[in-house]
Amino acid sequence: METYAYALTAIQYREKMANYNYSPPTQAWMESGKRTEVMGHQVFVYEKGSGPDVILIHGFPTSCHDFRDLIGILEGAFRCVAFDFLGFGLSDKPAAFSYSLFQQTDLIEALAAKKGISEAHIISHDMGTSAHTELLARQQEGRLGFKIQTSTFLNGSMIKDMATLTDFQRMLEDPQRLPEAMQACANMVNPYVPGLKKLMKKPEVISEEDETVMQELLLYQNGNQRIPNVYAYVRERYLHKERWLGALQNEKNPIQFVWATGDPVANHAMGKKLSEMVPQARYTEVEDSGHFIPIEAPATVAEAFKTFIGSDS
Q1: Which of 31, 76, 244, 289 is deepest in the core (most CB within 10 A)?
Q2: Domain 10-312 falls in which CATH fold?
């Protein structure tokens, strides 16, 4: 992958990206899915397999590319539908958009309707876990457009005040440092994946090709400049804590947490607390993984999901 100079001006950067030739692995990823119109925006959808529907919901600041290996295991028995949230990956990244988790959840409902999904199993990670709990809340209110059969939650800071924040997250969350954060994101034209690897126990699972794809997906449609916008979802985790944690506690359909104990952000203590708060949920700990459990331990997640589905079918 081409190495970008950190000191590029905004105009120079836009000109460079307008003429940017994506690497062969990124082009292959682009061709493996399809951009389709949902709610007036182009949304990247990665769909594989046939059988019962599974919707996979990715986290911040990555994309559904995180689920590629997990889907590779599940697609033999399930129809797996993964997508990029607006502001992420290969989906549109509009400037005039609030990126609320309520809007992103609307997107999931609209995509499910477009795909003819009437019932589905849900697997979510990181930021996606909060959209997942909003789906549960809507189902419990009798207004969700499809039925959630089972829920599998991977590491995500659902109890936000228990999260161990990184320096970058603290900068994004501090209103007084927001101009600094915006400038840092605008200049984020050097690889950002090394920062993600620090949150992993097995960073070696990300190949050089993977790193190139992940970097180029961030830069697609100036996505690095949208990071402060999309990160506004964190405030909603505080504001709607009772609604979303209450949806977990009130859920009657099968639910499970598959929690990587080596996660330095959505830490082990948070996983244990969730298991106490939601005693009806199955709780499985994964010791050889950090925050990016779909990437680090896809076989373990797949086995936990299939065992869970089998025991509750």
Answers
A1: 289
A2: Rossmann fold (3.40.50)
HEC string of 196-209 equals HHCCCCCHHHCCHH
Q: Where are the domains of the chain?
A: 10-312
Two structure tokens written together for 229: 């916008």
Residue 263 has pLDDT above 90, yes or no: yes
| Overall pTM > 0.85 | yes
Residue 56 pairs in a beta bridge with 82, 123
- Residue-wise pLDDT for 196-231, tens only, equals 999 999 999 999 999 999 999 999 999 999 999 999
Kindly report, residue by residue over 95-118, the tens digit of the pLDDT: 999 999 999 999 999 999 999 999
